[in-house]
Amino acid sequence: MEVTLNWYLMLSAILFVIGVLGVLFRRNVIVIFMSVELMLNAVNLTLVALAQHMGDTTGQILVFFVISVAAAEAAVGLAIIIAIFRNQQTVDVTEINLFKY
Amino acid sequence: MAAQILFFLLATVAIAAGLGMLLSRNPVGSALWLVLNLFCIAGLYLTLNAEFIAVVQILVYAGAIMVLFLFVIMLLNLDVLPEIKDIEWKKVFGFTLGMGVLGLLSFVVASSLDILPNEISARRAAEVGSATSLGEVLFTQYALPLEVIGILLLAATIGAVMLAKRKPV
Fold first, then answer.
1. Chain B touched by A2 (CB under 8 Å)
2. Could you give the CA distance from residue B128 to residue B47 in angstroms, rounded to a whole number?
């Protein structure tokens, strides 16, 4: 029994689902944001595992770009959270419903 | 045998840390669990011979992004959100949806067993993840996307400053 590609793929599937559940269950918008980061990481793990398996560098280049975009996304997203908090004094997504009605 | 033990150790801690992030009531606790998770994923990258990506993961994710998260949590001085009576069907629906996604993903992994390409040789495998080979491709074939990413990061920095700046009254 050796460590095969499927183990890595299953592990990233589980981590991705934990991220999905975090987005669905949590009310704190910062924790929702962290769950999105976890999902990005799960996909990165898939990409690295497949790139390694196929001996192709392109997958790891893609991971590099995903990490860069995640950094940009985190910066802008957290700035938006600060702006919302300044107006609404809350990070509860059930209270941030300006566009709902 | 050592490789399996290492994989299982890292995988178990990664999943446990993910669950810790999901279940922790305190946002700071969630962030710290996520840092542990990111370190485990960096370790898994090392088991896949992807040294460069592993180092970038620790530097950018565990270093920069999570510090930013903790900084914002401290800045907003967040307490644990008050418990509200959540609508029960919402949680049931969310759980069903999550398990559905898990089922779908594992079905795809299980059904693609025979179409996966063959494993490459160990020598070639060690070459793929090194900083040298990544840098060669990154600065020749993917030079333009690299520049575009630089501009994107600049735009994100300026955008974040503009968004978080206190508006003049």
1. yes
2. 13
Distance between CA B109 and CA B94 in Å, rounded?
23
Q: Which residue in this structure is represented by tokens 């060669």?
A: B136
pTM, to two decimals: 0.89
Predicted confidence (pLDDT) per residue in B80-113, tens digit: 666 666 667 878 888 899 999 999 988 888 887 7
Tokens linked to A78: 């957290």
Nearest by CB to B120, from A44, A55, A83: name it: A55
ipTM of the complex: 0.90
| Beta carbons of A48 and B19 less than 8 Å apart | no
- Which CATH topology does A5-88 take? Helix Hairpins (1.10.287)
List the single residue in B57, B72, B149 with the smallest CB-CB distance to A82. Answer: B72
Is residue B144 one of the residues assigned to a domain?
Answer: yes
Q: Are B106 and A6 within 8 A, CB to CB?
A: no
**Among residues 3-42 of chain A, which lie with CB inside 8 Å of chain B?**
3, 5-11, 13-22, 24-28, 30-31, 33-35, 37-38, 41
- B40 and B92 in a single domain? The answer is yes
B27 and B108 in a single domain? The answer is yes
User: Would residue B120 count as lying in a domain?
Assistant: no
Domain count, chain B: 2
Contacts of A73 in chain B (CB under 8 A): 156
Residue B118 lies in a domain: no
d(CA A9, CA B109): 7
